[in-house]
Each structure stands twice: as structure tokens, then as C-alpha cells.
Amino acid sequence: MKETDREAVATAVQRVAGMLQRPDQLDKVEQYRRREARKKASVEARLKAAIQSQLDGVRTGLSQLHSALKDVGDIQRSLADVSKDWRRSINTIESLRDVKDAVVQHSQLAAAVENLKNIFSVPEIVRETQDLIEQGALLQAHRKLMDLECSRDGLMYEQYRMDSGNTRDMTLIHGYFGSTQGLSDELAKQLWMVLQRSLVTVRRDPTLLVSVVRIIEREEKIDRRILDRKKQTGFVPPGRPKNWKEKMFAILERTVTTRIEGTQADTRESDKMWLVRHLEIIRKYVLDDLIVAKNLMVQCFPPHYEIFKNLLNMYHQALSTRMQELASEDLEANEIVSLLTWVLNTYTSVEMMGNVELAPEVDVSTLEPLLSPHVVSELLDTYMSTLTSNIIAWLRKALETDKKDWAKETEPEADQDGYYQTTLPAIVFQMFEQNLQVAAQISEDLKTKVLVLCLQQMNSFLSRYKEEAQLYREEHLRDRQRPHCYVQYMIAIVNNCQTFKESIVSLKRKYLKNEEEGVSLSQPHMDGVLDAIAKEGCGGLLEEVFLDLEQHLNELMTKKWLLGSSAVDIICVTVEDYFNDFAKVKKPYKKRMTAEAHRRVVVEYLRAVMQKRISFRSPEERKEGAEKMVREAEQLRFLFRKLASGFGEDMDGHCDTIVAVAEVIKLTDPSLLYLEVSTLVSKYPDIREEHIGALLAVRGDASRDMKQTIVETLEQGATQASPSYVPLFRDIAVPSLNVAKLLK
Asked: Which segments does the entry list as coiled coil (predicted)?
């Protein structure tokens, strides 16, 4: 108490100090005292009221406890009296067992009397129900069936409740109502038949489908009620629960599966397009069915059945199973493409699940794949393997067909620009295009793989093409009379190389969005092979020219030539005639052929000089021969200028070499011979000492010492050729002439 008093005094001092902080507050001391006095009186009054209330409550509680104690005593005495009475009445209860049995029998008889009307009318109701089922009046039939089942279940429940161990009576009741289960099964068959044709029924007679759903819904309610009663009593009537809703979805699922499987009308043996036809029928049927389900069937089923969602899942699962079955078959390449295109593209496109009539209930982004990635990968691997074999076979067959054309007696066809060509490039790239277009329908990745495959096989094919072109050339050289159109078909082979190049570039530009390293690396190799084929082809064509020119080239720089041979005239006419045929060669290759023909004609002319077929014996002969060489050089220059007129480049520079050699031969002052030869060597650094010796031998007036001096001096001052210099003398051999012989 002392501690409490001290705390109260401290609190009071604190409150007073708070009130008297300013001098002007001293005037209000009396006012503060009165206010505190009122507060004190108020608190004391509340305390007194609270204490009084507590005291009243305690007084009331004590009074109730006394009353309860008295009641407990009374109950105890009453229980004692009841115990005494019960002990005295045990024998009396035993004597009432007959009364109890009578009560049970009375209860059974009361139930029997209550159901007597139904019991006697069971056979009639069974017949009526059977007739209604046969007539298709399913709702009325189900109502009768419910009455029968209700009577049976009621009787059995009463029997179970009174004597659950009496199986004889339960069997008797069940046997009497035995036809009920048969009627239930018969009605169920009718319901399942309607559900199997539900997509047709909903369009022709939707009320029939609604009746079926109502019957199923009634049975579901009865099942739930019976299961609830089972929890309380343990009694379940025979044939329950029926689970007709679950069976309904099972029937629908089997119906969907059968519908999908039944769309295959053909086999590969009867129709090569069997799979395309099969998939198209599936697409049409599934789309039509789902549209009907969305627009009509949902109106015949309760919302909680989610009939459209369930049907969608059933169709998706049935399609997935069917696609798995098809994928497991030994499909051909085109069939794999058809299957994958349908699975990966058609299924989710607007032609099927993405159709606007199915939106928004069907969201294609939420649909699971019909085939697993593993199965798709296996199919793609099989397709690529089969395609590789097919492409190899197609290319081989195309080349064999082209080879047969090479032996024809008629000229090859020309393109719109007049250039000879065969059908080989068109056939090859049409085949590539078809396969790439097919692959593009499946995926971008497969398209790229097929493009890489095509280019890889193109590499191998070009190697075989090169070998066949070489064999064609060799076969012709063994008998130049055959094939009859060798030149024309060799021109076509050369032109095909340019077509192949352009087609490869076009193919890559069309089907390859991003130039990938693996693909781009194949281009230089193919270009190299094609250039090699074209080079050999052009070489074979020029070989034809020079085989015909051989006789006339051999006349050059001979006595006959000096006396007035027309060899160069014939050479010019022959070359021009051949190049009229070579006008069918495409420009890049024709340009190279013209340049090579120009170089070879000049080289052959110079070879004729170096072979020492003539040795001039007088200045007059040297002058005549040199002037003839100059005239013929100009003649050749005119010819090749004419042939190269369409190329916009000067191709007559090689003829200057003939003029330069003629100047050495024409020189009249032997003392200037060294200077003239030095000039010749500086212009043409590939001249060797045997060439100089042969040239001096043709002049016929150089002394032994002069020859020796010129050769030795030129050897000491050898010049370096410029990068742009085209060597001419390098290919000219002087087999029967050497310096040692010249110096003798």
C-alpha cells in the first residue's frame, strides 16, 4: 500500500506541476481544485457501483450453487429408484420377445401391403417398359424402369434394415424383379446407339439426344443418393451405381476413335495418293464434327458436362493415336512429307483447328503436338535417308538420259538466246525445286537440310558429269566421224556449266534466307568443277579446230609456203567457219575460246618458224619471207579482231610476235642482228636459247661466232617477265635442233 501511495503522490505532483507551469495559472488554483474534486467523486461513485455489482453477482452464484446441489441429490435418488425397478423388470422383458417378433412381422407386412399394388403390377410394367423401349419412347420407358427399381430397392432396403442376414428373402425379392436389370441393359443399349450417332442425331432430332442426356442425368442423381445412403446404412441395391455418365463419355470416345480409323478408304496398292486422301477426309470430318459440336451439341448437354471441351480432347487423342500408327508404318518419302505437313501445319491451320468457326473455344497454341518430337525426328531422318537415295538415283538416271542424247543425229535444242543446251540442268533443278518446295511446307529447318543435301549431291553429280564428258571426248577422238553432232553437243555441255552455275545461285537465293557457312562453302568447289568441265569442253572443241588445221599448219615456213601457199587463207577460213558454230557457245566461254584459239594459232605459227623447215639463202628470200609473215600476221589479226568484236576487248596482241620475228628475219645488216634479237628477247622473256638458235638458222646468214656471241650475251642479260605477260614461246619445243648443232 505504501508503494501505491507513493506512486499516487508522485503522479499527483506531476499533474500539479503540469497545471502550474505559468504564473497566471495560480489564479485558477481554486478552479483546478474543484475540477479535481468532481473527478474524484465520479471515480469513487464508479468504484462503489462496480463493487456492488460484483457483490450481487457473487450472491446470485452462491444461490444457484445451493440449488444445483439440491437437484443433484434428487437425481441421484431417482437413478437409484430406476436401478431398483430395472433389476425387478428383467424377467418381464424376456417374456415380451414374442411381442417384438410380432412387431417386426407387422412392419414387413405393412411394407408389403404398401407395395402390394406395385408388386402385382411388375409383369405388366415390365411389358410396357419393353414396348416403350422398342418404340423409342425412352423417357417414358425410363420412368417405368425407375418405378420398378424404386419398388425393388424399397423392398430390399426394408428387408436389409429388418434382417440384413436373411439372404433367402433378399434373393427372392431380387429374383422376382429379375427382369428389371434386363430392361436397364436394353435401355442402356438404346442410349448408347443414340450417342454413337449423336453428331447426326443432333442435326435431325435434337430432342432425342436431349432425352438421352436427361435419362443419364437422372441416373447420376439416383447414384449419388444411393451412395450417400450407403455411407449411413451400408445398403446398395443391385446394379448400382450405374455410372452412365462415365459410360457415355467412354462411348463417345470409342465413337470418335472409330470415326477417325474408318476414314481410310484406300491402300497404297490401290491408290498411291491413299495417305493424302485419308488425311484430307480426316481433316474434313473432324472440322465438320467439331463445328456441329460447338454450335449444336453444347445446347443438348448441361454446362458442367463441358461436352465440347471433352469432345475436342477425344478427337485430339484419337488423331494423335492414328498419327502414331501411320508414323510406325513403312512410309515412302512422299508419304512422310504428307504426314508431317498435315501434323505440323495443316492441323493447326485455318483449314482445321484454327478455323474461325471454332474460335475462341479452340486455341491452337494450347494443343499438344500430335506426334512427339522424337517420332518427328525419326520420320525426318527416314525422309532424308530416302530422299538421299532418290536424289542419287534421279541424278544418275538424268545423266544417263542426257548421255543418250549426245549420240543423236540431230542437233540439241537452243534456248531463247540461241545457245545450245540439253535438258539436263532443267531436269536436275526442277527435281531440286520440287523437293525444296515440299520441304518448305514442313519447316524452315528441313528446307535448309534438303538444300544442303541437294548441293552435296550436286557436287558428286558434277564429278560424274565431268568423267562422262571426258569419255565422250575420248570416244570421239577414236572415230571423229561419230557422233555426228559431237561439236554441237560439246557446246551444249559447255553451256550447261554456265546454266548450272546460275541455277545454283538462284536456288540458294530463293531457299536460303541467311547464307550459312556450311552451304556457302560448297559454292566455290562446284564453280571450280564446272569451270574445269567447261575448260575441258572448250579444249575439246578447239582440238577439233586444230586437228583440221594440222595439215595447213605444217605447210607454214616451208619452200611451198614461200613459193605461194594459201595455208593461212585456209586456216582463217577454217577457224572462222568453226567459230560460226561456236556462236552457240555462251559468252564467257566463247571469249575464253577465242583468246585461246588466237594464242594457239600464233604459237603454231611460231613453232613452224622454230622447226627450221626453211633456211633463207639470200637477202631477197629473207625479205620476201618476212613480208609474207607480216601480211599473214595482219590477216590473222583481222580474223581475231572480227571474232572478238562482241567482247569489247583487244585480242590481237599475239600477232605482234609474228611481226617481231619477221623483223629479225628481214634485217639486212647482220651487224645489227644482236640489237634486233635483244629487242625481241626483251619483249618476250620466255624465249630460250634454242629458239634464238633456230631463228638465226632460218635467216641462214649468221656466222658461227655471231651465233655464239648473241646467245652468250643474251644469257647474261636475261630479263624478268611482267605479271601481265602471256607466254608464247614456253610451249614451243625445238626437238631436233640444239645450240651445239647450230654452232657447227
From this structure: none
Question: Could you give the CA distance from residue 571 to residue 609 in angstroms, rounded to a whole number?
Answer: 16
pTM of the model: 0.65
Instruction: Answer whether residue 94 shows pLDDT above 80.
Output: no
Measured CA to CA, the distance from residue 436 to residue 441 in angstroms comes to 9
Q: What is the reported pLDDT for 742?
A: 39
Are 670 and 701 in contact by the 8 Å Cβ rule? The answer is yes
Does the fold of domain 556-716 match that of domain 377-539?
Answer: yes
What is the distance between the alpha carbons of residues 24 and 20, in angstroms, rounded to a whole number?
8
Q: Output the 3-class SS for 685-699.
A: CCCCHHHHHHHHHHH
Separation of alpha carbons 493 and 498, rounded Å: 9
Dist CA 457 CA 431 (whole Å): 12
Residue 157 contacts residue 149 (beta carbons within 8 Å): no
Angle (CA) 577 581 582, round 5°: 110
Partners of 414 in beta bridges:
420
Rounded distance between C-alpha atoms, residue 686 and residue 582, angstroms: 31
222 CB-near residues (< 8 Å, 6+ apart): 146, 240, 242
CATH for 556-716 (3.40.30.10, 3.40.50.300, 1.10.3720.10, 1.10.357.70): 1.10.357.70
* DSSP3 helix / strand / coil % (the chain, rounded to 5): 80, 0, 20
- Cα separation, 580 vs 354, whole angstroms: 63
Please report the beta strands in 669-743, taking only residues with DSSP state E, as ranges in sequence order: none
Residue 124 near residue 147 (C-beta atoms within 8 A) = no
- Using an 8 Å Cβ cutoff, are 226 and 218 in contact? no
545 has a pLDDT exceeding 80: yes
- Cβ contacts of 702-706, under 8 Å, gap ≥ 24: 702/670, 702/673, 704/743, 704/744, 706/670, 706/673, 706/674
104 CB-near residues (< 8 Å, 6+ apart) = 162, 163
- Phi (first) and psi of residue 414, to 5 degrees: -115, 150
Please report, for residues 30, 111, 123, 221, the alpha-carbon distance to residue 235 in angstroms, rounded to integers and kept in the order given.
90, 17, 26, 17
Q: Minimum mean pLDDT among 168-172, 193-197, 674-678, 740-744: which range?
A: 740-744
Burial class (CB in 10 A: 0-12, 13-18, 19+), 406: buried
- Written as nine digits, the cell of 439 is 520441304
How many other C-beta atoms are found inside a 10 Å radius of the C-beta of residue 420?
A: 25
Please give the CATH architecture assigned to the domain spanning 377-539.
Orthogonal Bundle (1.10)
Q: Please give the angle made by the CA atoms of 102, 103 and 108, to the nearest 5 degrees.
A: 95
Phi, psi (rounded to 5 degrees) for 420: -60, 145
In the three-class reduction of DSSP (H, G, I as helix; E, B as strand; rest coil), residue 510 is classed as helix
Spans of all domains in the chain: 32-242, 247-371, 377-539, 556-716
HSE-up of residue 147 (Cα within 13 Å, Cβ side): 17
pLDDT in tens, 447-499: 888 888 888 888 888 889 889 888 888 888 888 777 788 888 888 888 888 88
The residue ranking higher by pLDDT, 715 or 578, is 578
Q: Are the beta carbons of 439 and 449 closer than 8 angstroms? A: yes
**Residue with cell string 583481222:** 638
Q: How confident is the model at residue 396 (pLDDT cuts 50, 70, 90)?
A: very high
Region 586-608: mean pLDDT is: 87
Question: How confident is the model at residue 34, as a pLDDT?
Answer: 82
Q: For residue 501, what are the CA distances in angstroms to 155, 492, 525, 530?
A: 95, 14, 11, 8
